């Protein structure tokens, strides 16, 4: 068995890669739960506006809405490309 | 037992259970047929409804395709009564099937229409099992809207687990229970097409990982099994093949749905020789 484990250890097991990917995906999806329905559209349109000025990737933008008792904060994060 | 109390029938609420997944082809219809049949075999008056309008195939899995006259859409549109559309299962007492339409499009279903059908069925049945179409759009949302419990069918595979998580999101926001702020829909994880040998080889997500990622209680584990295709060829739900691994695993699942404690089976890898492990015993590439 030890020889086999050694041989198998050569590469990362695909199931553990799957698990890591899923943990990230699910955390992201759960973060979006309960957000207003307009958020994906808002995100898309903001992205289009930004792209008129700077060339950024589809995933360079993230927005989230946090609310506590008396106010809501819309947080917008845009990763801009490095200036050459 | 409830049958004997038919006078009191109105005071007993049927339990509505949706079998759902988001992703298609993961085993919803197979599971809905097996669970409904299993519940009926245990003496519960059970009806299983095909919500996959346009793509019906529950009738094939239940082996009653030649007896379909009216369907769910006919009932909702007032073209047939519920009793005309319900098909009594030939093999199993206490079991009825309400087929979907093959020709109409899925917009033929309305929320009010579905509610009326479910309310009428609730007077006569103990369990109403709803076989959901794939997707997260209207059809799937209609199938889950009135549910008390949900069986979320998941394969050990990235896209299936992700879609199951999206369905969980919908259950907690777009169901009647959520909208009316009642107790939430009770969510159960049903892992199907599980291959313990591939899990053992590290090439398939194991059940603990899936359970941990989705964070809901496991109601059953159905192995990948030749018995399932055999059952669908014959139009006999796999629980009737009670010698088969999948048949037994579904019967265990039914017992758990009824509140019994049943230990998990079929999760351990078969003992294999070193040679077969190295050369694709579990289909390793
Ligand atoms: N445990 C299992 N083992 C082997 N094949 C399965 C199993 N469960 C489902 N299948 C097969 O997977 C396919 C899709 O199943 P189905 O129940 O129709 O899925 P869905 O309703 O989610 O689209 C069918 O060919 C079925 O026979
Ligand atoms: Mg189906």
UniProtKB/TrEMBL annotation, chain A:
The keyword Transcription does not apply. One of its GO terms (molecular function) is identical protein binding. One of its GO terms (biological process) is cell division. Keywords: Cell cycle, Cell division. The keyword Cell cycle applies. SUPFAM superfamilies: Cell division protein MinE topological specificity domain. Coiled coil: none annotated. Prevents the cell division inhibition by proteins MinC and MinD at internal division sites while permitting inhibition at polar sites. This ensures cell division at the proper site by restricting the formation of a division septum at the midpoint of the long axis of the cell. Belongs to the MinE family. HAMAP family: MinE. This is Cell division topological specificity factor. It comes from Salinicola endophyticus. The lineage of its organism: Bacteria, Pseudomonadati, Pseudomonadota, Gammaproteobacteria, Oceanospirillales. The gene is minE.
């Amino acid at each position: 068995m030890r020889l086999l484990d050694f041989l198998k250890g050569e590469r990362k097991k695909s199931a553990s890669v799957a698990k890591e990917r899923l943990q990230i995906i699910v955390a992201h999806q759960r973060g979006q739960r309960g957000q207003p329905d307009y958020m994906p559209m808002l995100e898309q349109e903001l992205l289009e506006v930004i792209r008129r000025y700077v060339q950024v990737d589809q995933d360079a933008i993230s927005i989230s809405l946090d609310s506590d008792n008396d106010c809501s904060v819309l947080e917008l994060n845009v990763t801009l490309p490095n200036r050459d | 037992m409830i049958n004997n109390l038919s006078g009191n029938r109105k005071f007993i609420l049927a339990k509505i259970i949706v079998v759902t997944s988001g992703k298609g082809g993961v085993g919803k219809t197979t599971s809905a047929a097996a669970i409904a049949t299993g519940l009926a075999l245990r003496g519960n008056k059970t009806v299983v409804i095909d919500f996959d309008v346009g793509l019906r195939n529950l009738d094939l899995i239940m082996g009653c395709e030649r007896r379909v006259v009216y369907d769910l859409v006919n009932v909702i549109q007032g073209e047939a009564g519920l009793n005309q559309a319900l098909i009594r299962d030939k093999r199993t007492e206490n079991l009825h099937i309400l087929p979907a339409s093959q020709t109409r499009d899925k917009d033929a279903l309305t929320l009010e229409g579905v509610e009326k059908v479910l309310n009428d069925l609730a007077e006569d049945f103990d369990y109403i099992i709803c076989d959901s179409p794939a997707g997260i759009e209207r059809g799937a949302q209609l199938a889950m809207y009135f549910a008390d419990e949900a069986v979320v069918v998941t394969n050990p595979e990235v896209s299936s687990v992700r879609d199951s998580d999206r369905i969980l999101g919908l259950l907690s926001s777009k169901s009647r229970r959520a909208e009316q702020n009642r107790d939430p829909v009770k969510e159960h994880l049903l892992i199907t097409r599980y291959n313990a040998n591939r899990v053992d080889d590290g090439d398939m997500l194991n059940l603990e990982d899936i359970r941990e990622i989705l964070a809901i209680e496991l109601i059953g584990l159905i192995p990948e099994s030749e018995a399932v295709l055999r059952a669908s060829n014959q139009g006999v739900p796999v629980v009737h093949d009670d010698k088969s691994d999948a048949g037994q695993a579904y019967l265990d699942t039914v017992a758990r749905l009824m509140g019994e404690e049943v230990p998990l089976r079929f999760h351990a890898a078969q003992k294999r020789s070193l040679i077969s492990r190295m050369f694709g015993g579990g289909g390793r590439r």
